[in-house]
Design brief:
Order of helices and strands: HEEEHHHHHHHHH
Number of strands: 3
Strand content: under 5%
Number of helices: 10
Shape: elongated
Oligomer: single chain
Length: about 280
C-alpha cells in the first residue's frame, strides 16, 4: 500500500529518515482514553480476534481508534458472556475524518471567542449609548485631570482619549447602529462555531465566505499600521481559508464532498480495521 493511502494509526514501512507526524488518533486517545471492546466479557471467541484476543494466557484488547493493543486482565465480575457483535459497536473516527473533526473544533473555539468578544463589545456600546449623557461629565473631568493643561475642555488630538471624545460626539442613533453591526457579526460567529463544532457542511461554507470576505480589509489595515495582533489574525484567517478550501474540498475542489465521503469510508469502518489487523500488515 502506498504512503499516500497509509492506514490511520499504522506505519506499514520504515521511513528513510525520521519525519515528525502528528497522529491524531494518539492525541484523541490521550485526551478521551482508548476505545476498547469486550473488557467486561467473561471470555473471548474466535470471532473477536479483530478487536480482542488471548495470547499466552494474556488478554489483549485493540483500541479501535489508534490500533494499540493493550493487555487487560479478565474482569472479576463479567457483565456479559462475550464481547458485543459488530452491529452493536459504534466505531470511533480515525484518519482524516478524525483530523478534520479536531481541526474544525479548533476553528469553532476560535469563532466562539469572537462571539464572546464581539457580543461584549455590542453590549458595551448599547449601554454607553443609553447612558452617554450621564457619562459625559465624568469623562471630561477625568480627561481634564489627565491633560497637561488642566483647564483644557477636550482631550488630545490623537490616541485613546481622542477616540473616546469622538464616541461622545456621535449621535445616539449612530452608536446604536454600530452596536447592531457588532451584534450581528457576533451572532454570525456564534452560528459558525455551532456548525463547525458539529461538523456541518453549511458551516464550512459560511466560515469560508465570511473569513475570505474580511481578508481584504485585514490586509488594508495591516498595510497602514503593522502590529503583531494584526499579523496573527490575518495568518490564522488565511490558514482557515486554505484548510477549508483544500482539505475540506469546498466548491468541488479535489473531488468535492464525494471524495471526502470516499476518504471517510476508507479510514473509518470495519474494512479499515481489517486492513490494519496484525495478520494483514505482517
Amino acid at each position: 500500500m502506498s504512503q499516500r493511502h497509509r492506514l490511520p494509526g499504522v506505519e506499514l514501512v520504515e521511513p528513510s529518515r525520521w519525519r515528525p507526524r502528528l497522529h491524531y488518533e494518539l492525541l484523541a486517545c490521550a485526551v478521551a482514553g482508548h476505545e476498547l471492546i469486550g473488557i467486561d466479557a467473561r471470555r473471548l471467541s474466535a470471532d473477536d480476534t479483530l478487536v480482542a484476543r488471548e495470547v499466552g494466557g494474556v488478554r489483549w484488547h485493540r483500541c479501535l481508534r489508534c490500533d494499540s493493543w493493550l493487555p487487560v486482565g479478565a474482569p472479576a465480575e463479567p457483565a456479559r458472556e462475550l464481547p458485543p457483535a459488530r452491529d452493536e459497536i459504534d466505531l470511533p473516527l480515525r484518519g482524516k475524518p478524525l483530523r478534520d473533526k479536531i481541526v474544525l473544533r479548533l476553528i469553532a473555539a476560535n469563532r466562539l471567542l469572537h462571539f464572546v468578544v464581539l457580543g461584549a463589545i455590542a453590549i458595551l456600546i448599547f449601554v454607553f449609548a443609553s447612558h452617554r449623557d450621564a457619562l459625559r461629565g465624568r469623562f471630561y473631568r477625568i480627561v481634564a485631570d489627565l491633560q497637561t493643561g488642566a483647564g483644557s475642555d477636550h482631550p488630545a488630538s490623537h490616541g485613546l482619549l481622542h477616540e473616546a471624545d469622538r464616541a461622545f460626539s456621535l449621535a445616539s442613533g449612530t452608536l446604536q447602529l454600530v452596536g447592531v453591526v457588532f451584534l450581528v457579526y457576533a451572532l454570525v460567529e456564534g452560528v459558525e462555531a455551532f456548525g463547525l463544532w458539529y461538523q456541518r457542511r453549511w458551516a464550512e461554507y459560511l466560515t469560508f465566505i465570511v473569513t475570505a470576505s474580511l481578508l481584504p480589509l485585514e490586509a488594508y489595515e495591516l498595510a497602514h499600521r503593522l502590529s503583531a495582533l494584526k499579523i496573527l489574525t490575518i495568518a490564522i484567517n488565511l490558514a482557515v481559508v486554505a484548510y477549508l478550501l483544500w482539505a475540506k474540498r469546498l466548491f468541488g475542489i479535489r473531488g468535492g464532498v464525494a471524495a471526502e465521503h470516499r476518504e471517510r469510508a476508507r479510514d473509518v469502518g470495519w474494512p479499515a480495521l481489517e486492513r490494519s489487523a496484525p495478520e494483514a500488515v505482517s
